[in-house]
Design brief:
247 residues; alpha+beta; Arc Repressor Mutant, subunit A; 2 domains; 5-stranded antiparallel β-sheet; 11% strand; globular
């Protein structure tokens, strides 16, 4: 596995799920030409439904990857379109998917869902490589320098990161790093770190982890300090979100 990976931690923290769904509920579709040849792959990160005739649809599914709470999803284009004529590898995956749909052998449902997940991962890679003209995580991950610092934050959210540390990882001077990060990501490094920590903390709260353990995990000096930061960010006390049996 590559040492530097812009997607792995995001994939680990926001589980990707692709499930077959009717076109009205779909966020991922594969369209067909009039002659039945796979044509396009369309993905809507937020929002559901496509107005496409059913006879032009090979595959429709609902993708769950954390929704707006996932910082990458929030910065993706409203609709991502892949021309399968220009993407041989994705077309090969679609043909495998087409065979599974047609023959419905044992385990077809699982195979179809997994192939859908691979298609989404490939789209995400392409989006990161292409970047974005709008400030946000997508633009930050596309920057060869900033992405190293962002991945470090993602991988070790509980570390006491200083701008000096992150600038060194990015290979930039402190002032240049702070300037480029703000312009590209849309917020200072400390603000992004704080938001990432609280996003992960909310996941852990909803799983039932103890508030004091979560506070230590993400670098807060006390559970009281963590609770204040959590309430300021989300508008509610973390204890309210814990499963009833764990509270």
């Amino acid at each position: 596995m590559a040492k530097f990976d812009r997607l792995t931690t995001l994939m680990d923290r926001f589980s990707l799920s692709v499930q077959l769904a009717p076109i009205t509920e779909a966020t991922l579709v594969v369209t067909l030409t009039a002659t039945g040849i796979p044509q396009k792959l369309l993905f809507r990160p937020i929002g559901k439904g496509f107005e496409i005739p059913s006879e032009r649809i090979l595959f429709s599914a609902e993708v769950d990857w954390g929704g707006a709470s996932n910082p990458l999803v929030a910065t993706l284009p409203a609709t991502i379109e892949v021309d399968l004529c220009n993407d041989v590898e994705s077309l090969s995956l679609v043909k495998l998917l087409q065979a599974e749909l047609a023959h419905q052998r044992c385990g077809a449902s699982s195979a179809i869902n997994r192939l859908g997940e691979v298609l989404v991962v490939r789209m995400l890679r392409t989006q990161i490589e292409a970047g974005s003209t709008r400030p946000g995580l997508l633009a930050g991950l596309a920057d060869a320098r900033l992405s190293r610092a962002i991945v470090a934050i993602h991988n070790r959210p509980g570390r006491d990161w200083r701008n000096e540390d992150l600038a060194q990882i990015a290979g930039l001077s402190l002032s240049r790093f702070a300037e480029i990060f703000l312009a590209t990501v849309g917020e200072p490094p400390a603000a992004y770190l704080r938001r990432w920590r609280l996003t992960l903390a909310r996941q852990d709260v909803e799983k039932g982890d103890r508030v004091d353990a979560i506070a230590r995990r993400y670098g807060y000096l006390s559970s009281e300090g963590f609770t204040r930061a959590f309430k300021k960010h989300f508008g509610e006390n973390p204890i309210v979100l814990r499963p009833k049996a764990s509270a």
